[in-house]
Amino acid sequence: MSLLLRLRIVKPSLNLFTDRSFSTVKIPQSRRSTTKFDKLIYDAGNSGDFETVRCLLNSRVAYGSFNTSDTFKFLTNTASYTSDLEDLRRVLPQIDRGFTRKNAYDILIARLCKLNRIEDALIVIGDMSGLTPSTFHPILCSLTKKNKIEEAWRVVESMRSKSVPVDVTSYNYFLTSHCYDGELEEASEVIRKIEEEEGISPDACSYDALVLGACRSGKVEAAIGILRRMEEDGVRVLYSTYAHVITEMVKEGYYALGLEFVLTYAGRDLKKL
């Protein structure tokens, strides 16, 4: 039966290391830490040496040192932003195909979202091939956090137009936004879309958002009911899900009930080895 109805809530090639450039940045000839690679890319990007940025993006993945949220930290909202982004758009299509290129694009999009450059992130998506839902996640996260729900839904429509499936994580950004604001009717509509339109099942984060929504609406009993439904359905309960309930109980002064809740659920969220 629908959750909505039940709850009734209102090996890359190593010859790339022979790439030559006039850079003063030395490209590592052996494995280095992600921090080291990020620092080298920062220095190269900050100095405008994007040929070296390209080489470093290739070499780090070949050595198993993957990109991080700091990889494009040199890209900032300064006077050089536009030219730096254009240089990145020029060199990214030149790096190795597959994971290396896709991951570099994804990390760049996440960086642009952190800089609140959503339109530029969408432009970069237009440069890509092999799009996946995760490519759009930073954009949806950024928009829904700012309560720009209509813009976020337009991004969803863009995903569909590009034949990118809308996964449960994409919907969870909307669900969390509505539940944080206590908008239970809107949250119910998102659950309906997940189950009826997409035919996928809500996950632990979906339930977590629903518990949050119930708590922020002052409906602790409903929140506990959702938590029990999670257990019945075999859904792993997140630490934050328990915390939502406890926080609301303390806020409302239900100290004895809160203590009973803690004692009842103590140890249930331990990971099974």
UniProtKB/TrEMBL annotation:
<comment type="similarity">
    <text>Belongs to the PPR family. P subfamily.</text>
</comment>
<dbReference type="InterPro" id="IPR011990">
    <property type="entry name" value="TPR-like_helical_dom_sf"/>
</dbReference>
<dbReference type="InterPro" id="IPR050667">
    <property type="entry name" value="PPR-containing_protein"/>
</dbReference>
<feature type="repeat" description="PPR">
    <location>
        <begin position="132"/>
        <end position="166"/>
    </location>
</feature>
<dbReference type="InterPro" id="IPR002885">
    <property type="entry name" value="PPR_rpt"/>
</dbReference>
<dbReference type="Pfam" id="PF13041">
    <property type="entry name" value="PPR_2"/>
</dbReference>
<dbReference type="Pfam" id="PF01535">
    <property type="entry name" value="PPR"/>
</dbReference>
<dbReference type="Pfam" id="PF12854">
    <property type="entry name" value="PPR_1"/>
</dbReference>
<feature type="repeat" description="PPR">
    <location>
        <begin position="203"/>
        <end position="237"/>
    </location>
</feature>
<keyword id="KW-0677">Repeat</keyword>
<feature type="repeat" description="PPR">
    <location>
        <begin position="167"/>
        <end position="202"/>
    </location>
</feature>
<protein>
    <recommendedName>
        <fullName>Pentacotripeptide-repeat region of PRORP domain-containing protein</fullName>
    </recommendedName>
</protein>
